[in-house]
Amino acid sequence: MKTHIFPDYPQLCQRVAKNVIDCVNAKPHALICIAGGDTPLGVFAALVEAQKQGRVDFSRTQFLGLDEWLGLGKDDKGSCREMVWQHFFDKLTLRGEQICFFDGLTANPQAECQRVDRYIEQHGPIDCIVLGIGMNGHIGFNEPGASLDNTCHVVDLDSVTQAVSVKYFDTPREVKQGISLGLKTILAAKNIVVMASGENKAAIVAQTVNHPASTDIPSTLMKTAQQANLYLDEVAASAL
Which of 143, 153, 158, 233 is catalytic? Predict the structure, then answer.
């Protein structure tokens, strides 16, 4: 995994967006997966602007969700679905059949995992995936100790993830489980982009770069993929 450092968050996001744009321009029907959360918000904005400017056309692109909090849906502030639709999908006016996203309100999470696995079998492997790094090194909801053999699966959320989750929600919520693409699926992607920004990510970025690859810190496993790149702003790289 190569590391690339940019002066600030806007330049970081422009470079990550370029990866997605290049992928779609080379393969218009590409399967793209971009994480929810705060980190990729600038990437979403850059991609929406690129389509407005005619630098990319997402009309044939397939989009895949990375993860979702179980028990939350599109109408819940802070859900992955709400964030990605608000900042990205709704601004691109995509057709419903272009998007495969976990239903956090499902009554049968295992069946939901199987549905998304089938979608990936039909449309995959993922052509480009954009990932953030959790404070405990999680990738998607693949928490410390996650299996490398997992495809889509239900996750008991780590205490760190549960504590951090409160920043996303406008009302108090107790989220104990998530549903996520597994490490096996993620590592099979043709182009893996891991991004981090801000001072609060400096410590886990340093662990990711310096620690041997281990399921104890799932982000370190991205180093085992030749097709992976780590994109950082200077603040997130400050502990390297």
Answer: 143
67 is catalytic: yes
What is the Cα Rg of the chain in Å? 16
For 1-58, the pLDDT digits (tens) are 999 999 999 999 999 999 999 999 999 999 999 999 889 999 999 999 999 999 999 9
| Annotated active-site residue in 103, 138, 153, 229 | 138
Percentage of the residues of the chain whose pLDDT score is greater than 70? 96
**Could you tell me where the DSSP H helices lie in the chain?**
9-26, 41-52, 80-84, 90-92, 109-123, 159-165, 183-187, 202-210
- State yes or no: is 143 an active-site residue: yes
For residue 106, give Cα distances in angstroms to 39, 58, 59, 68, 149.
26, 28, 28, 11, 24
Among the listed residues 67, 112, 127, 158, the single catalytic one is: 67
Residue 136 annotated as catalytic? yes
115-153: pLDDT as tens digits:
999 999 999 999 999 999 999 999 999 999 999 999 999
The single residue of 136, 150, 191, 229 carrying the catalytic annotation is 136
CATH topology of domain 2-233: Rossmann fold (3.40.50)
Any idea how long the chain is?
240
Residue extents of the structural domains in the chain:
2-233
Question: Is the model's pTM score more than 0.85?
Answer: yes
As a whole number of angstroms, the distance between CA 22 and CA 100 comes to 22
